[in-house]
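Replying to the earlier thread about multi-chain prediction with a worked example.

Input:
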Amino acid sequence: MTDADERSVRQAEASEPVGVGRRRFLGYVLAASTLTVAAELGEAALAPNEAAAAVPSLPGPAEIYDLNDMLTHATLPTANLITIRVDPDGTASFALPRAEVGQGITTSSAMLIAEELDLPLDRIRITLVDARPELLFNQLTGGSNTTISTFTPIRVAAAVARGRLLKAAASVLGEALQTLTAKAGVITSTVTGKSLTYGELAEKAAAVTTSQEPVTLKDAGDFEVIGTAQRRIDAHEAVTGRKKFAMDLHVPDALPTMVCRPPTINGTVRSVDNLAEVRAMPGITDVVTVSTGVAVRGRTFGQCIDAVRALKVSWGPGSAEGASDATIRDELRRAELPLPSLDLLTKSVDARFTFHFASNSALETNCAIADVREGSAEIWGSLKSPIVAQEQIALKLGLPVSAVKVHVTEGGGSFGRKLFHDAAAEAAEISKAMGKPVKVMWHRTDDFRQGRAHPMATSRVRATYALGNVLTYDQRHTSVATDFGHGLGEIITSEAARLPVGDLTFSETIFALTQQTPYNFGVVTQLLSETDKGFSTGSMRNIYSPNVRCAQELVVDELARRMGKDPYAFRRSFLKEDRARAVLDKVAEVGDWGRSMPAGMAQGIALHPEYHACVAVLAEIDCRPRTTGRKVRDAYTGPRVTKVVCAVDVGLAVNPRGLEAQMMGGIMDGIAITLSSSLHLDNGHFLEGSWDEYFYTRQWNTPPELEILVMPPTTGQPGGAGELGVPATSAAVACAYGRATGTMPTTFPINHDGPLGFEPLPTTPPIPESPTDGLDRAF
Amino acid sequence: MPEHTFILNGERVTVDIEDDVRLLWVLRDVLGVTGPKYGCGLGVCQACTSHINGKAFNPCSVPVKDVGTDDEITTIEGLPATVGKDLHPMQEAWLENDVAQCGYCQPGQIMTAVAKVRQARQEGREINEADLDEIRNVCRCGTYHRIREAIQAGAKKY
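Result:
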């Protein structure tokens, strides 16, 4: 008897009590016209992994119970609302209560269904769920949590469906369940050879009443889909231009709409001098003042750009008037929590690192469609906290929550930006004011200057050492406040995060739940303090970790240097976890750690554990003048990362190919935040206004050599993957830069304090005219 | 309102629109062709990259009046037809290398890739690392390495 048959038998008998065995769960068959199933979680499988902390360091809070555990546990009570439907056309449909913004979760979710349902991947349809308040916490996309929190419930639902289909087939064929096998969407009798497709059985397997069904999930050893490299299920649509993002949707009468925004951060409209004149411009239908500026609606976005530029607006002050990098740096210094006093005889490494403002702007700018009517509203947008969006928009419009429909569209990148619903709220406000549907899109320049930013921060570190040991490690991270107003995806926590005290606690909670020190460094403390709420901020891919861990890994290099140890060997000897040591060893071996390089070039090595996963990165950098002096027009070249080797252990990689993609993206982000990309704050506004000014990694900065190694399964449970690559890379690149130049870098990105690499665009009008010389630049 | 006529993905189209409206908005907002994406409207990010008479260009930076009656505009939607197939070999390479993440920039990346390969061949050579370094298209998901691999693989297909 095969294991699959055995499962069917055990499922049919269903005599064992609930909770027996790690793979045994209860699901639901729901009353519906075609087979529809749902899942309930067994709590044992999702219990947080106990960290095996080594002495002498006590485990930090994040090692025992991290942010991801909190997110997972927050979803438990409502996870049984995850449903899969099997249709007569032989496809299975699953509406994912998460936002797909490029991270590949529609593909990995389809793989989980394919595995337990025994249906080919191309017959599984994944859509994104509209905002559903009853899901409470279970509709937040963040903290690298999607696969961790849905890994079991999606499989349980799929297994229930498979069981129902087998039972229906047994009934139709008049055969015993044990004689049937399910494969590739077809159930076949091993006795008579007769077969039925899932499509033929979909209605027969449907139930008239909702009931519980026990199921046993596949053993990891029997996985045929999970753990195999799969291409994205939406790739064909992406490469043919058919993939629909919010601005590609056609909603009747939702005309292009843009906002003329203030010259300083969060400035306000005092008056508009030429409303009538702008209303009469070609293509323009409406001009109204709203809380964020002056909105214009017209036939094309091009005409909206012209109208925005033509508006003569008198502006009130913003929320960061007069602020600049220097004033914020001083403010952060004043807000730094003290480090423990130092015994004068103890040797120590003392350092202060500065991380400048950075932008989490995606390539798709903030955008949303809104159609607000008398008594109802409909919103379309890529939203990672759609329930918060729905509830707050309802509140603002004075409508019951049930009267506001929020559709989650495919997103053109997020990096934390889409945790907030700024464009959706703005679109709702504008639609209400104009009394018409609107398609609101932010201009690129606004997206950098007025969009949310990763807050500027300092990290002060003191590590003491003696006799070959690190005795203490203290880190005081001081940051411009990070807005966590999206809460855990639900309005109650969202509102709590807005309270002055609650907000601080929430930030500190997030910090405590995410920050950890992977080394045995004696007594370790890592604390956060926040200052200045005048900025529009938000989490940028991996929140605090890229800065906190970059600082820590640089101090590790410095400790190693002072103690006369090799950076790799030093890390290896102080690491707490075997999994961390394994990825470190892997990159050292594959990346040929310690190979000789010309002066001005060097290797750097670093690692990062988080969300039940662990990654190591070995980076090689070229800081020789002939490289840093490369000329590319309107660009920053600088030092080039010539090679990256990355080894990643996420416990269980559902889709190794997708995991590699996430690492690749994280590597490009890590290179950017260490070497080149930041926002310069000057007199109350950010200077960067285009991709030739905000120096995110471009092809000329991309490492020509890149190798990503996915480790074999370790824990058997998927860990977080979406953010992991960023801190390890930013740290490895910083360490490599320090070793290549002989000086530990302390300001990030390293080019921030150099001459500004561009001529800033004016702030009035707030957005530049589109060029007209495109044909001259054709190639 | 002025009329503008040009050839879009093999078909002659005529639109009523002011002269100075950039072609990107004529394509997206008037004609409903949404493959070319908006990423900046400044001729910087290259997300709208399409072809005019076979050469890559940014429709966000060209007033519609500058497009002539017989100019052939090809967007990502019309790329497969230029080789008489369901997919251009470069699109196939994109699929084989699983390049896309969010996918927003990828139509522009593919249109640039096809033009870069053609440009190199006009110079009597195949595309190389230095050519790849010149590509200006932004991918905020950071798919750059797979883009490089896909272009080199795609170029071998035709």
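The radius of gyration of chain A is 27 Å.

Feel free to reuse this layout for your own posts.
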